[in-house]
Amino acid sequence: MRRIRALAVGLTLVLAAAGCVSDSPAVDLPDLRIMVPNAPGSGYDVTARSAAKVLEDAGITRGVEVFNLPGGGGVVGLRRLGYERGNGRLMMLMGLGVVGSQAAAGARVTLQDTTPVARLIEEPSIVVVTRDSPYRSLGELVTAWRAAPAAVPVGGGSAVGGPDHLAPMLVAHAVGITPRRVSYRQYDGGGDLLAAILDKQVAFGVSGLSEYADQIASGQLRVLAVTSERRVPGIAAPTLREAGVDVVCTNWRGIVAPPDLAAPDLDRMRAAVARLHASPQWRAVLERYGWTDAYLSGNDFGAFMRAENERLDAVLGDLGLTA
């Protein structure tokens, strides 16, 4: 019996070292649901499902459900969140794309009506083509794009003002193409966009790195450039600046909750996400997808979202685009 007890203690220590056993009790947050406001396969979807798995694996809470409610670049999900006033068991994964979509749609429920929980990550966008694309470099793509903007359509998984829209508009502006002349085709998330890229409905796509990690690794897609300030480890592609285009543009993602939450419910939500952020399992997720830790909690996150809304309005105005 002593031998068995010793083995059990040893196994517990090994599991704890591996991050499989939590020293803290689970957060009292049963039946938590995380809404993804666009289709499966999108960056929001990947982030939400990764977060749900970490919440479970790290013993933070149990029974987490992720569900998709696509439409309007996130506006349908945002409206649903507004209807769930006071629901302390619902979160929504969101990001820069929803900031743009709510402005473009004139949404009656906006992010300012929601309860900020935390910003989680930043992620560069990528400029991608199929492996048999005639464009072997960003320079070749830009040359063709300048010559005939309408004949070189770009696809993205976000609405006006979202990261997939904003990045190519900034690139177009930087290389001398009037943004209004750009043929931008909007798809509801990375899954739909991937199908369009592979079917050659667009000449190139702009999306988050994590959404197409598998297709890049398999060689289905080639990355012509990344929008970050520095190169991304494991991606054989230059930054936009290295390719001669003076643009840096990063996406971010976070979590919001319904309005009018009771203080104990909000405290539990923020505590759960804070523990997720501190877990070794989440650090492994960041490394796997090439995400940058951008954790910002509570009211600070709310102030950041307000500032992003103002920034986006200014950028779209400067580009001659209306949201």
Summarize the SSE layout with pairings:
Layout: H1 2-17, E1 33-36, H2 43-57, E2 65-68, H3 75-83, E3 90-95, H4 96-105, E4 115-130, H5 138-147, E5 154-156, H6 163-174, E6 184-186, H7 190-198, E7 204-208, H8 213-218, E8 221-226, E9 250-257, H9 263-278, H10 280-289, E10 292-297, H11 298-318
Parallel strand pairs: 1-2, 1-3, 5-6, 5-7
Antiparallel strand pairs: 3-9, 4-7, 4-8, 4-9, 4-10
Helix pairs in contact: 4-11
Kindly list the characteristics that best describe this protein.
D-Maltodextrin-Binding Protein, domain 2, disordered N terminus, alpha/beta, 11 helices, 323 residues, ten-stranded mixed β-sheet
Question: What would you note in describing this structure?
Answer:
There is one protein chain. The protein has 323 residues and is an alpha/beta fold. It folds into two domains: 23-122 and 252-318, Bordetella uptake gene, domain 1 (D-Maltodextrin-Binding Protein, domain 2, 3-Layer(aba) Sandwich), CATH 3.40.190; 124-250, D-Maltodextrin-Binding Protein, domain 2 (3-Layer(aba) Sandwich). It has helices at 2-17, 43-57, 75-83, 96-105, 138-147, 163-174, 190-198, 213-218, 263-278, 280-289, 298-318; strands at residues 33-36, 65-68, 90-95, 115-130, 154-156, 184-186, 204-208, 221-226, 250-257, 292-297. Strands 1, 2, 3, 4, 5, 6, 7, 8, 9 and 10 form a ten-stranded mixed sheet that branches. Helix 4 (96-105) packs across helix 11. The longest helix is centred in the last third of the chain and has 21 residues, at 298-318.
